[in-house]
């Protein structure tokens, strides 16, 4: 055994890891005090923002691509059940086996059963948000099956018994010297003279995983895009660990959220341009693999596709809210978010952090009353609008945030001054171009809190936020004004 | 109710509540690239983008130049694997032991080989990408271009297109495809790109560019 998986704890929530244990403001408060974390995040997000801007600038039809991406996804939502049936038929016709899972627990049960059938007690995994969401590794662990994460950042998270904090780079909160320390501590065969040079760290991961890849009998993956009419599944990656997991094992089990389906192969011409440039800031990521069912003589000869609902049908029912299902997990909105940059991903509780997580997680789980920690997530934003501008599929996250705040107020009690201001903000939020107007409206909250101190704010999460921040009233200056002043100085 | 029926029923109900109007998808982005397929400009741009992501490009003027170019990049290798349909003459000047993947080699065998030589289905100049089609006899099954640490890929100018849409239009998505853009790399340490993780760490491209008439 090269990896100590620790004591497996199976998520007790049937939804898996979509809820943390404390409200955002409480967790954020602690994160803000962590100087090292802030430095690591600041450095990493600055680097990626610059790279993204450079490669997006090369593409003169970027806005046209964004619009096409947005509409393909809206089309998918309007035809989701039919497209999934078509995908199922295409995959089955090409020798794959399709399974359906109502929630995380059911998906895990299916995968555990499929691994058991192979007789293997070990699987290699390529990073997938869907299986992080379901808590699959813990479920496998509880069944005596070791799940080995093979993506570098995911491996770092697994070795240090940590939690992911970013879609693309789950260990973004770790810097190179922390990574070296983790490798020295947790990799049995590592060179004791390992330095923190990124190239040496990558080589250490290569050496650590090589034998496992070559002997693995079961691979587990997620999906970036699944093409309904051809049954083609596509996985986008960098390191080649994905290729290893998708190619060398006898059995491949792929778990996908139902929203990942796209109608046709040619739709990928849009997403394969939008995703790499938005995500790693590259013209193209090093490797993209696609396959359809089983190919005799090449790759796994047994292929299972698990289609996961886990709350997605809740989200689909909301005419605006369903936009959150358009997300292609590029993480651009995280990288540009001033709140994420300071708090990091763990503060959001759910494995979906950042601006998109703040609108997606509460919709996936639904809100169980004002004390539900996910009720605080729509407040984890300054509404600056940067996430919309960065989003390659034009998800109007600020609009969704404001809408969800208003919905939470509606559901849980009498409006307060802050709520009224928020509602006014929702009305003003006709387009993201009008944020400064919105921000001025939000400042009304100050004028309305006449006593100068807000004692209790029944809006969900708001109470916790103000309690945690011990904030006498909404700030005189909006986040964007403060940010602008800070950038100029 | 089975999980399948229940999930589909939920999704149908939710879709009807949330709206089932199918939008028109605007396709006014460029579906044709700036440079014509196979043009000198497309090949020039491909050379730049490949080089930018640390692949090494070797140009030859015609098919007759391929054997010497391949032999030169494999000078330090003692063994190489070739897919069943790779033209035999391409490996005519190689001094390394050549293993054909026919019958298929085991993973352990592949792991002992230094290099692999393949063709490519199409290359994309805008992004520095070439695509391997596992059903094409000169490209072969996926494992052979994955396990050896050095990949030599031969690309014809006629197979170079400018843009991603042009490339996808030329590909059949039925068999396994692998899009390769540079040697394996990671952005996982402080979000900066570092080359060389699990896939081949060295990537050489032999570009066949006939002189213009
Ligand atoms: S919401 Fe948009 S920007 Fe954010 S991760 Fe998803 S696709 Fe990327």
TrEMBL record, chain A:
<feature type="domain" description="Lactate utilization protein B C-terminal">
    <location>
        <begin position="413"/>
        <end position="487"/>
    </location>
</feature>
<keyword id="KW-0411">Iron-sulfur</keyword>
<dbReference type="InterPro" id="IPR024185">
    <property type="entry name" value="FTHF_cligase-like_sf"/>
</dbReference>
<dbReference type="Pfam" id="PF13183">
    <property type="entry name" value="Fer4_8"/>
</dbReference>
<dbReference type="InterPro" id="IPR017900">
    <property type="entry name" value="4Fe4S_Fe_S_CS"/>
</dbReference>
<keyword id="KW-0479">Metal-binding</keyword>
<feature type="domain" description="4Fe-4S ferredoxin-type">
    <location>
        <begin position="324"/>
        <end position="395"/>
    </location>
</feature>
<keyword id="KW-0677">Repeat</keyword>
<dbReference type="InterPro" id="IPR037171">
    <property type="entry name" value="NagB/RpiA_transferase-like"/>
</dbReference>
<keyword id="KW-0004">4Fe-4S</keyword>
<keyword id="KW-0408">Iron</keyword>
<dbReference type="GO" id="GO:0051539">
    <property type="term" value="F:4 iron, 4 sulfur cluster binding"/>
</dbReference>
<keyword id="KW-0249">Electron transport</keyword>
<keyword id="KW-0813">Transport</keyword>
<feature type="domain" description="LUD">
    <location>
        <begin position="84"/>
        <end position="293"/>
    </location>
</feature>
<dbReference type="Pfam" id="PF02589">
    <property type="entry name" value="LUD_dom"/>
</dbReference>
<dbReference type="GO" id="GO:0006089">
    <property type="term" value="P:lactate metabolic process"/>
</dbReference>
<protein>
    <submittedName>
        <fullName>L-lactate dehydrogenase complex protein LldF</fullName>
    </submittedName>
</protein>
<dbReference type="GO" id="GO:0046872">
    <property type="term" value="F:metal ion binding"/>
</dbReference>
<dbReference type="Pfam" id="PF11870">
    <property type="entry name" value="LutB_C"/>
</dbReference>
<dbReference type="InterPro" id="IPR003741">
    <property type="entry name" value="LUD_dom"/>
</dbReference>
<dbReference type="InterPro" id="IPR024569">
    <property type="entry name" value="LutB_C"/>
</dbReference>
UniProtKB/TrEMBL annotation, chain B:
<feature type="domain" description="LUD">
    <location>
        <begin position="111"/>
        <end position="208"/>
    </location>
</feature>
<dbReference type="Pfam" id="PF02589">
    <property type="entry name" value="LUD_dom"/>
</dbReference>
<dbReference type="InterPro" id="IPR037171">
    <property type="entry name" value="NagB/RpiA_transferase-like"/>
</dbReference>
<dbReference type="InterPro" id="IPR003741">
    <property type="entry name" value="LUD_dom"/>
</dbReference>
<dbReference type="InterPro" id="IPR024185">
    <property type="entry name" value="FTHF_cligase-like_sf"/>
</dbReference>
<protein>
    <submittedName>
        <fullName>L-lactate dehydrogenase complex protein LldG</fullName>
    </submittedName>
</protein>
């Amino acid at each position: 055994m090269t990896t100590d998986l620790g004591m497996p704890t199976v998520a007790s929530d049937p939804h898996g890891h979509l809820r943390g244990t404390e409200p955002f403001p409480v967790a954020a408060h602690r994160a803000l005090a962590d100087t090292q974390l802030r430095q690591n995040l600041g450095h990493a997000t600055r680097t990626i923002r610059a790279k993204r801007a450079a490669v997006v600038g090369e593409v003169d039809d970027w806005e046209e691509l964004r619009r096409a991406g947005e509409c393909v996804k809206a089309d998918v939502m309007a035809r989701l059940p039919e497209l999934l049936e078509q995908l199922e038929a295409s995959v089955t016709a090409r020798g794959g086996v399709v399974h359906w899972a109502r929630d995380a627990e059911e998906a895990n049960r299916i995968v555990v059963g499929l691994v058991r059938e192979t007789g293997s007690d070990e699987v290699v995994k390529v990073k997938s948000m869907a299986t992080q969401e379901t808590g699959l590794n813990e479920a496998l662990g509880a069944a005596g099956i070791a799940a080995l994460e093979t993506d570098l950042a995911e491996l770092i998270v697994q070795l240090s018994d940590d939690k992911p904090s970013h879609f693309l780079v789950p260990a973004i909160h770790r810097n190179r010297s922390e990574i070296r320390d983790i490798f020295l501590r947790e990799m049995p065969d590592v060179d004791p003279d390992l330095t923190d040079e990124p190239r040496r760290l990558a080589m250490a991961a290569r050496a650590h995983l090589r034998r496992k890849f070559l002997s693995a009998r079961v691979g587990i993956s997620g999906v970036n895009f699944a093409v309904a009419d051809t049954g083609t599944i596509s996985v986008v990656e960098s390191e080649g660990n994905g290729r290893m997991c998708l190619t060398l094992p006898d059995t491949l089990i792929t778990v996908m959220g139902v929203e990942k389906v796209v109608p046709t192969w040619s739709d990928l011409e849009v997403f394969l341009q939008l995703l790499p440039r938005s995500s790693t800031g590259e013209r193209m990521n090093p490797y993209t693999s696609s396959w359809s069912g089983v190919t005799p003589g090449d790759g796994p000869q047994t292929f299972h596709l698990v289609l996961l609902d886990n709350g997605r049908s809740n989200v689909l029912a909301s005419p605006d809210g369903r936009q959150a299902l358009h997300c292609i997990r590029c993480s651009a909105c995280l990288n540009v978010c001033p709140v994420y940059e300071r708090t990091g991903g763990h503060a959001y509780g759910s494995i979906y952090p950042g601006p998109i997580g703040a609108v997606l997680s509460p919709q996936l789980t639904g809100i169980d009353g004002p004390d539900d920690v996910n009720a605080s997530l729509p407040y984890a934003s300054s509404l600056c609008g940067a996430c919309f501008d960065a989003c390659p599929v034009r998800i109007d996250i600020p609009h969704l945030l404001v809408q969800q705040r208003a919905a939470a107020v509606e559901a849980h009690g009498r409006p307060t001054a802050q709520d009224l201001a928020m509602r006014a903000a929702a009305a003003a939020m006709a387009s993201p171009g009008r944020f400064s107007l919105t921000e001025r409206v939000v400042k009304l909250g100050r004028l309305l809190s006449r006593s100068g101190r807000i004692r209790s704010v029944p809006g969900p999460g708001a109470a916790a936020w103000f309690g945690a921040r011990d904030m006498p009233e909404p700030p005189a200056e909006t986040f964007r004004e403060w940010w602008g002043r800070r950038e100029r100085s | 109710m089975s999980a399948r029926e229940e999930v589909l029923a939920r999704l149908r109900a939710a879709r009807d509540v949330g709206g089932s109007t199918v939008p028109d998808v605007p396709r006014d982005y460029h579906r044709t690239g700036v440079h014509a397929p196979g043009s000198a400009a497309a090949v020039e741009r491909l050379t730049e983008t490949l080089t930018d992501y640390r692949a090494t490009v070797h140009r030859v003027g015609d098919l007759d130049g391929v054997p010497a170019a391949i032999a030169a990049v494999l000078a330090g290798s003692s063994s190489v694997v070739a897919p069943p349909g790779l033209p035999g003459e391409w490996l005519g000047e190689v001094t390394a032991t050549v293993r054909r993947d026919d019958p298929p080699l085991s993973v352990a065998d592949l792991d002992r080989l230094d290099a692999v030589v393949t063709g490519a289905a199409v290359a994309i100049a805008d992004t520095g990408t070439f695509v391997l089609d596992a059903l094409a006899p000169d490209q072969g099954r996926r494992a052979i271009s994955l396990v050896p640490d050095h990949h030599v890929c031969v690309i014809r100018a006629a197979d170079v297109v400018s843009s991603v849409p042009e490339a996808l239009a030329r590909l059949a998505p039925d068999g396994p495809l692998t899009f390769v853009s540079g040697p394996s790399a990671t952005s996982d340490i402080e979000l900066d790109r570092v080359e060389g993780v699990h896939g081949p760490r060295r990537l050489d491209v032999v570009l066949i560019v006939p002189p213009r008439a």
